[in-house]
Amino acid sequence: MSRHPDESIPIVQDHRTAGPTVLRMLVGAQLRRFREAARISTEAAGYEIRGSHSKISRMELGRVGFKERDIADLLTLYGVTDPDVREELLELAEHANTPGWWQVYGDVVPSWFEPYLGLEQGAVVIRVYEIQNVPELLQTPDYARTLITARHPEASQAEIERRVELRMARRRVFDRREPLKLWAVLDEAVLRRVVGGPATMRAQLEHLIEMAALPNITVQVLPFTAGGHAAEGGPVTLLRFAEPELPDIVYLEQLTGALYPDRASDIARYRDVLNQLGVQAEPPSRTPEILRAVLAGR
Prior knowledge:
Blueprint: E1 2-3, E2 10-11, H1 15-38, H2 42-48, H3 53-60, H4 68-77, H5 83-96, H6 114-122, E3 125-130, H7 141-151, H8 157-169, E4 181-187, H9 188-192, H10 198-212, E5 217-222, E6 236-240, E7 249-253, E8 258-259, H11 264-280, H12 287-295
């Protein structure tokens, strides 16, 4: 990584690993720091690029693509004149505008879910608590097919298969040179709810045993006997990135949308809840034993 001589802001060189969504967040974070260092308001910055303060906010949050002219004009406004720094940020923005591999599945990806796909592919650590189903990154094709069919009863078989194909393709995060680290806490109900019939469920549990044995995947079970806990409101996903200037992101999926609580206090609260669940749940070393017991009908 190279650094801006004054601001010490890292520039990511491994664009393929970070992915366009995370790169947009990085470009936005650096633009925000340059703006704040120059003590320029979002209104003034928006006026400079013939836009509004809300456009600047969206750019700084990494929620939109970037135009080279806009970035060049903003850097000039912010007093960033070093040609190396300007070129590096413009190059980063160019990579950030590159479509992600998942965009070929645009016909089956709702607009509210596409940002999460980019975040998932760019994360280095994902922590998840599930109360209903096996986390999507750990699902077998048959298990996933059953859930997708139930959620989209009006879909054709071809569409169902496209959705299954996308879900399986997301598992490429485990095939990276430095694979995603996944820590999942599963409510016992996840293991007891038979999805797709006994054969499908058996294959899914056996797959969980295999995945839990990998060094980058941790699976814990929160038993019914644990009683009440802090995450009874529903599933929680927390994503962490390699770039230190990017905050953790909390993702709460709903039936027709998703929420991203972004206040620092909210993120800290969800992080604490996940930590508490890890303490309440059975230790990872017991997971294979628990899964085999369920397979044996105990």
